[in-house]
Specification:
Two copies of one chain form a homodimer. Helices cover about 30% and strands about 25% of the residues of chain A. Chain A is an alpha+beta fold. Chain A is globular and about 60 Å long. The first copy, chain A, starts with a helix and ends in a 15-residue tail after the last strand.
Chain lengths: ~325, ~325
């Protein structure tokens, strides 16, 4: 292997940059003080970090998996506004002993996630640190609809999700189960390491009149709570309606009854779209109603009660 | 003190967000999956990371200093394109034991740097990590001029800087000198901890016809080399013309003759603008010619020779 501190920053960028996808919006790409893009409509911007040991482990995730996930969760945030992603800025901090090949694999993972959507990686930063930190800012533009925030769900709206839930959580549980041998080819593990939300589901929801939307990143109940709080409303979830991913059912096989449902309710990182729609509106293909918005209470109730586990807090216990 | 893991992510954001400046371009600010901005002209985007222990030390820099520097170096990157900064995305990874007051101080530092320029902090991310990492993406827009890249310096152009150099390097040298007592109020140290490039100098240079431009972040010689390489040209620096910051001279007092000049040539982080202009054009106020662009050789020569020290590489030795 060759360590990145053996070849230096400028040489590393020269190797890395050609692997990155570009975008039709790009006027000036990587290599200058800033990138330059053309923007139609309004600009939509979102940022996320991935920290080694917190969001990924190198013994589980390949470099390409990390690049894929860093891209995909940011594309999902743009989609969750009902906007179209166009470009990423990707900053990478890594120890000097990191293998150059890791950085190239990371770039290939970014490209694999972005290129099918015409999204380019237009710039970023490289820095030394004692562990790997990836910081992505995704840029997109509105496409004939107003941005769909979390704040406008109203009394009587139905709440729906764009796809079944729990696959990523199941993969995480399998990976950290000390009693299991190699699970790397289990479909739930693949779903955890390479989440594949359908980018464009959010735009379709916007075109179907979604009143509030976000992607499920920290667990369904926690994220539903964010829509409820932003919209100053209550949301009632009927757990019998919550679609459970096949990978989640497979991962929960042999465990206590109810495990798969619990993972679907509280697991994060599927990046499935979650939206409220006016009652009676046709939903886009593939969406499932799981509950309703109400003025009768505040917060989230599952089958009429406050659920014990709320999902993932990045600092909390 | 209160630790950030005692109050949790959502509560921390609720305390942090009101301290952040906003911008006239903002359609939707922090708190949703993405921010929404209006953009006139083309979009200019740049990213930088600050890593604890690499780019700052908590025993030297207050939280507000870190916020200030994170903002300012990114504003300088937008200015270095001849564009106008409008907004920042700011992501922060920090240990759970970090004092909530550190995060508030960081927000106040961001605000102090941004607000005078009408720049808002419109979004970002919070994450746990074992040391502090700040990742900023700055957004700006062109303002009636084409973006000024590093690539179009031409034979015969003059090379100029917008302000004297070496202040930040002098402050760094003073801080790490074990023979010195408290230097926290030395003007060079203040310049290192709170770099204050004049934002707008880059736009003025663009309006005066600059052919190539960047800000000096990794040292004059190294960064001049980047313009030379991108422009496929040679650049000759006359060291007797290089303006040395007063803080640099003060910091070098009592050291070997030539120390202040060496710091001005190789020190980084002043974020002064560096640009090439067609010979004979009037320069903006405050700029100083330090050399010229030539087709007679490639790379950088100082007083006719290759300089021994090239400046700062983030991974190299």
């Amino acid at each position: 292997m060759t360590r990145i501190d053996e070849i230096g920053e400028d040489a590393l960028i020269a190797m890395f940059a050609p692997l990155l996808p570009d975008t039709d919006s790009e006027i000036l790409g990587p290599g200058d003080d800033a990138a330059v893009l053309s923007v139609d409509g309004d600009l939509v911007v979102s940022s996320d970090m991935l920290v080694e040991g917190q969001h990924f482990r190198n013994e589980w995730s390949s470099a390409a998996d990390v690049g894929w996930r860093a891209a995909m969760q940011n594309l999902a945030d743009i989609d969750a506004m009902g906007a179209v992603p166009t470009a990423l800025q990707v900053s990478l901090a890594a120890p000097g002993h990191t293998d150059v090949e890791w950085v190239m694999g990371f770039a290939r993972g970014l490209a694999a996630a972005c290129a099918p959507h015409g999204v380019g990686v237009v710039g970023g930063d490289l820095s030394a640190s004692d562990r790997i930190v990836v910081a992505v800012t995704a840029l997109g533009e509105t496409h004939g609809t107003d941005p769909v925030t979390r704040a406008d769900a109203g009394d009587g709206d139905v709440l729906a999700v764009s796809a079944p839930l729990g696959a990523a959580r199941a993969g995480y549980e399998l990976l950290q189960d000390p009693d299991l041998d190699d699970v790397s080819e289990h479909p739930a593990v693949e779903a955890f390491l390479r989440p594949s939300p359908r980018i464009g589901a959010g735009l379709e929801a916007a075109l179907h009149g979604a009143t509030a939307m976000m992607d499920v990143s920290d667990g369904l109940i926690r994220d539903v709570g964010r829509i409820a709080r932003a919209s100053e409303a209550g949301i009632a979830i009927d757990s019998s309606l919550v679609p459970i991913a096949e990978e989640c059912e497979l991962g929960a096989a042999g465990r206590d009854a109810g495990t798969a449902l619990e993972w679907a309710l509280t697991g994060g990182e599927d990046h499935v779209m979650l939206a409220a729609f006016p009652r009676g509106r046709a939903l886009p293909d593939g969406w499932t109603v799981i509950g309703e918005v109400t003025d009768a209470f505040r917060g989230v109730r599952v089958d009429g009660a406050v659920h014990e586990s709320q999902g993932w807090d990045h600092f909390g216990q």
